Each structure stands twice: as structure tokens, then as C-alpha cells.
Amino acid sequence: MDTNFVKSLRDGDDSYFRKIYDLHHFKVFSFVKKYTAQLADAEDVTQNVFIHLWNYRAKLDPSIDLESILFKTSRQEISKWYKKQNLIFSVEEKQLIKDLDSAEENGESLDSKMEEIGLLLKQIPERRRKIFALYIFEELSHKEIASKMDMSPSAVANQISKTLQFLKKNSVKHHEIYWFAFAFLGSNC
Q: Are the beta carbons of 122 and 129 closer than 8 angstroms?
């Protein structure tokens, strides 16, 4: 059925765009929402996904699954959003998108990995968890955290290092922390 939708959209039948939107909007929005801080951001990125689909409809390949097209476009639009927001370094962003692609291809669940990281973070002392959250999620410097937590910058660095060592010991890769941060940005650990 999706093959016919893609072919009809590509061939200029605009009514199929609305059908595709109605059938897939919620799935795309749910996916995008995992990687944006606010619902409004998720709505904007989702809208950009469908704008991209519309703008490039003439280039669509009907042999490619429509959901694959939509989720690849979603990853691209998420990447663009992060660049625009300056929320992550380009190396981490490229790694995130690469890992999203490989995780989907391997059938891994990003939700389960994020849940695992959340459970690991709950195992560390509350004060260390707060320091780590300020560093990773709010992107504060060691000096800013030290001022906020009434401690020295070297003590902050030590606490962050201990948390990263703990996560690494439990098989968490550095870029996976960013997955977690993107999914739960702005929330407490």
C-alpha cells in the first residue's frame, strides 16, 4: 500500500500527501519527541519532515519503504535541529545519527538503552548525579557547577570523572549519554 502512496505522490497526486500525513504523523512525531526538549520543538521538526517529503516528492523511490523514508528524513531533520540549536558538538551529532541508523538496522531498542542509562544514573549518589546532570544536560562548565554547588572546580571534575567511569564500566558509550540527554533534556535524572 505504501508503495502505491509513494508512487502516486511522486507522480503528482497531491491527495496522497494528506493520506501519508494522516497515517504517519503520529509515528513521526513520537519518534522526534524522544530527541527534542519541548513539544513545540518536536512539532516543528515533525512539520519539517513532512515539508521535506513534499519538497522532494518527485525524487522519491517507490521501491523504498515509506516508513524508511520518513524515519531517515526524521533523523536528518533532528540533526538539522540540533545544529541550529548548537546543543551538541558535530562529532557527537554524527555519532548519534550513525548510531541511530545502526541501532534501527540491528533491531536494538534505543528506549531500552536509555532506560538502562537512567537506571545506572539512579545508582550513583544524589549529589554526584546532580553535578553530572548540570554538566551533561545543562552544559554548565566545571566552574559554573562549582559555584552553584559550593565546591571547587577540581572536586566537580572528580565527580564527573567518577560518573563517567561508572557508566563506562557498565558498558555505556560516551555518545549514548547524549541519547539519554536528548530524550530527557530538562528533566531530572
A: yes
The answer to whether 35 touches 78, Cβ cutoff 8 Å, is: yes
Report the C-alpha gap between 75 and 152 in whole angstroms.
Answer: 39
Cell 519527541 locates to 33
Model-level pTM greater than 0.85? Answer: no
pLDDT, tens digit (0-9, with 9 covering 90-100), for 46-95: 999 999 888 888 888 888 888 888 888 888 888 788 767 654 434 444 55
Please state, in angstroms and rounded to a whole number, the distance separating the CA atoms of residues 183 and 177. 10
Q: Which amino acid is at 171?
A: S
- Alpha carbons within 13 angstroms on the beta-carbon side of residue 104 total 11
Provide the grid cell at 80: 538539522
Go through 3-12 and write b for each residue having 16 or more CB atoms within 10 A of its CB, e for each that does not.
Answer: eebbebbbee
Task: Name the H helices within 34-151.
Answer: 39-55, 66-85, 90-105, 110-122, 126-136, 142-149
Tell me which amino acid residue 182 is. Answer: F
